[in-house]
């Protein structure tokens, strides 16, 4: 067995970084007065050039051990490090550190090694496109800069930084550099609007900046004090003036002109207008490079990443996709949210899906301080609508997602996904919803189309459905030699029937209609699992089922039923969409979310749905963009791919017949168990 390297660490802060051993690819040893002479050490790790690094550095020099300097990566996390958010990327430098302009860092040497960077160029191009599309930066907690800017004047941006930051000191800059930058920006841009961006750490009140009183001395400058996404702000300006800020490099990614007054890691390569007194000396040492080369070296070779799903070494794309997911989740839930009138069980569910590090969630009635009132479906909306209108508070609706659980929701199984809809709700066809708006404007990128193809493949191959319950079901099609139609039963008092199926609202009426219109077909009727379990309304008598259907698949797995069918006829059942995924012909007697896009035979038309979609596009919008997925154990936000992986890893549950006494007793114990868990929480 290969013996791992051992890295000594004096700092408890570094020791406590989650996954630090994975980042270092080494075992770690906490250095104390009692174990400070360990002979098996291969190096001492410190955090950049912080004052706390001086003592460990002296120890390393004394014992002739290499010093390994660590710093946050360039795409670090969703929230701020000063707020306790763990890093998803770290840089590890065995020479110096990237912001030290006085000597070549490992990053500088990597940039000069073009041959090793070149293989990363294709991925780098995609990464830059992704970063610019999603406005990704070092920290990603802030909302987009969406202000309407009426002025036609061109704009420049001046970047403030935190006082005495190591990147300024080792970038050979000081307060005079900031004064020179400000003076130059003012003198060189008389016809421009001049904006100044405050650093995020200054906005939190935890650090100071260099331009605290700039508005008094320069009233014509507009200070951007709102906490906004850096790239979303950079997109509005022509030029960027900086000392050593990482935003300068992000401006380069957007194609902006960048003027530097310090010596950041991206200066001196011929990509920036460098005004530092010793700029020529640095340029001579560094040489020239392309932006793609800089990015490849810095983001692919220099940075190390953690895959948030596994806790193991990951890739830049693992981190970026996760950050986008969590960022969207947090921003969509910002403010003070109230969720009144819920059961203990629903409170537990909604708290997991609504609470973020920066918002407030209560289960009290709405008041004047509420940003929004979150309710369960249309029934909750009806109950709280008048009160919210009186307070002028918007109502947001939540419901189960389309890949929900292994087991029924009515049996109190924790949902893997929920939807949060601020416009309507997907099953209410009488009005628009967030999902409908997504689908009406959907245009997938190349990578999203590839994801959609994979998603469909995984779902179909894994035989996944909403609840993933039921027993195996087969049918000898050669013996039947008829067109097979599957009619999935539904819960008749379900809101999707009441709001989405105005013509037919009962299982018996649907089944009778299908039989009348298809007298020669072999009809399979599949009762809904919630109805079958005795939890919900929608039962058809045995006599009527026998008369109208050729076969009743009482406790069958819905995907097995879809597999043997040629067609699926439904009011609004999700089974219709699952059938589309499996390439089946689907007729809709109501207006489910998947009708009206050119993929189904629709008995009722919906004039609002004007886009024509492929099944993969519809799948991506409905399953990847619309719901939120929460891991049942870690309670962290996950992607639809992770949700599928989790569902695949769980054994399917067998169906419990309505007349099964043991099944009924088992369900009651399950309910008591989950209610107890809810109360404990």
Written account of the structure:
By secondary structure, the chain is an alpha/beta fold. Among the domains are: 139-290, Rossmann fold; 331-439, Rossmann fold (3-Layer(aba) Sandwich); 451-654, Rossmann fold, CATH 3.40.50. β3 (43-47), α3 and β4 form a beta-alpha-beta unit. The two termini are 44 Å apart.
Q: What layout of secondary structure does this protein have?
A:
Blueprint: E1 6-9, H1 12-15, H2 20-24, E2 27-30, E3 43-47, H3 54-62, E4 67-72, E5 89-93, H4 106-112, H5 114-117, H6 121-134, E6 155-159, H7 166-169, H8 175-188, E7 193-197, H9 200-203, H10 214-217, E8 222-224, H11 230-234, E9 239-242, H12 247-253, E10 257-260, E11 273-274, H13 279-286, H14 291-302, E12 303-306, E13 313-314, H15 316-332, E14 336-338, H16 344-354, E15 360-362, E16 372-376, H17 377-391, E17 395-400, E18 417-421, H18 434-440, H19 446-462, H20 477-480, E19 484-488, H21 495-500, H22 507-517, E20 522-526, H23 529-532, H24 542-548, E21 551-552, H25 558-564, E22 567-570, H26 574-581, E23 585-588, E24 601-602, H27 615-625, E25 627-630, E26 637-638, H28 640-648, H29 661-680
Parallel strand pairs: 1-2, 1-3, 3-4, 6-7, 6-9, 7-8, 9-10, 10-11, 14-15, 14-16, 16-17, 19-20, 19-22, 20-21, 22-23, 23-24
Antiparallel strand pairs: 4-5, 5-12, 12-13, 17-18, 18-25, 25-26
């Amino acid at each position: 067995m290969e013996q791992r390297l051992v890295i000594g660490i004096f700092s408890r802060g570094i020791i406590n970084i989650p996954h630090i051993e994975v980042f270092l690819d080494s075992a770690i040893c906490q250095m104390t007065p009692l174990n400070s002479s360990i002979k098996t050490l291969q190096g001492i790790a410190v955090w950049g050039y912080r004052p706390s690094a001086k003592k460990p550095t002296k120890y390393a020099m004394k014992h002739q051990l290499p010093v390994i300097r660590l710093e946050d990566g360039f795409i670090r996390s969703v929230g701020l490090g000063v707020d306790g958010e763990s890093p998803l990327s770290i840089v590890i430098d065995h020479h110096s550190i990237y912001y030290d302009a006085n000597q070549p860092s490992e990053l500088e040497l990597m940039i000069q090694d073009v041959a090793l960077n070149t293989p990363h160029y294709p991925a780098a191009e995609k990464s830059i496109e992704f970063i610019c599309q999603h406005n990704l930066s070092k920290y990603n907690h802030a909302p987009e800069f969406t202000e309407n800017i009426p002025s036609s004047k061109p704009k420049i941006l001046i970047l403030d930084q935190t006082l005495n930051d190591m990147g300024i000191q080792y970038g050979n800059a000081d307060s005079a550099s900031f004064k020179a930058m400000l003076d130059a920006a003012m003198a060189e841009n008389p016809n421009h609007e001049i904006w100044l961006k405050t650093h995020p750490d200054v906005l939190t009140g935890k650090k100071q900046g260099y331009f605290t009183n700039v508005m008094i001395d320069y009233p014509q400058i507009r200070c951007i004090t709102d906490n906004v996404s850096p790239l979303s702000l950079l997109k509005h300006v022509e030029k960027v003036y900086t000392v050593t800020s990482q935003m300068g490099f992000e401006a380069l990614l957007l194609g902006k002109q960048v003027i530097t007054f310090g010596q950041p890691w991206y200066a001196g390569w011929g990509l920036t207008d460098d005004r530092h007194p010793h700029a020529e000396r640095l340029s001579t040492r560094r040489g020239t490079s392309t932006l793609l080369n800089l990015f490849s070296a810095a983001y692919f070779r220099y940075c190390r990443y953690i895959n948030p799903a596994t806790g193991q070494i990951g890739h830049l794309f693992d981190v970026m996709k996760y950050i986008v997911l969590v960022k969207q989740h947090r921003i969509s839930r910002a403010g003070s949210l109230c969720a009144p009138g819920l059961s203990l069980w629903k409170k537990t569910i909604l708290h997991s899906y609504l609470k973020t590090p920066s918002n407030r969630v209560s289960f009290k009635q709405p008041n004047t301080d509420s940003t929004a009132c979150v309710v369960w479906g249309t029934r909750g909306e009806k109950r709280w609508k008048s009160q919210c209108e009186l307070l002028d508070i918007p109502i947001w609706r939540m419901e189960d997602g389309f890949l929900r659980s292994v087991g029924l929701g009515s049996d109190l199984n924790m949902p893997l996904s929920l939807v949060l809809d601020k416009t309507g709700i997907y099953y209410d066809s009488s009005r628009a919803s967030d999902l409908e708006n997504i689908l009406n404007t959907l245009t997938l990128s190349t990578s999203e189309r590839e994801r959609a193809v994979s998603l469909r493949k995984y779902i179909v191959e894994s035989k996944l459905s909403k609840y993933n319950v039921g027993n195996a079901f087969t049918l000898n099609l050669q013996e039947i030699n008829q067109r097979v139609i599957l009619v999935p039963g539904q819960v008749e008092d379900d809101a999707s029937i009441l709001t989405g199926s105005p013509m037919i609202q009962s299982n018996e009426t649907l089944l009778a209609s299908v039989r009348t219109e298809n007298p020669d077909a072999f009809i399979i009727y599949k009762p809904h699992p919630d109805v079958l379990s005795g939890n919900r309304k929608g039962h058809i008598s045995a006599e009527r089922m026998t008369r109208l259907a050729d076969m009743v698949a009482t406790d069958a797995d819905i995907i097995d039923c879809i597999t043997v069918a040629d067609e699926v006829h439904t009011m609004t059942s999700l089974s219709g969409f699952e059938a589309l995924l499996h390439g089946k012909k689907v007729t809709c007697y109501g207006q489910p979310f998947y009708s009206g896009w050119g993929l189904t035979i629709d008995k009722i038309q919906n004039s609002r749905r004007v886009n024509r979609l492929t099944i993969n596009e519809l799948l991506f919008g409905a399953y990847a963009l619309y719901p939120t997925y929460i891991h049942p154990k870690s309670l962290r936000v996950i992607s639809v791919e992770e949700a599928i992986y989790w569902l695949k890893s769980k054994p399917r549950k067998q169906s419990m017949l309505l007349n099964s006494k043991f099944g009924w007793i088992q369900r009651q114990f399950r309910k008591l168990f989950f209610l107890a868990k809810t109360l404990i929480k």
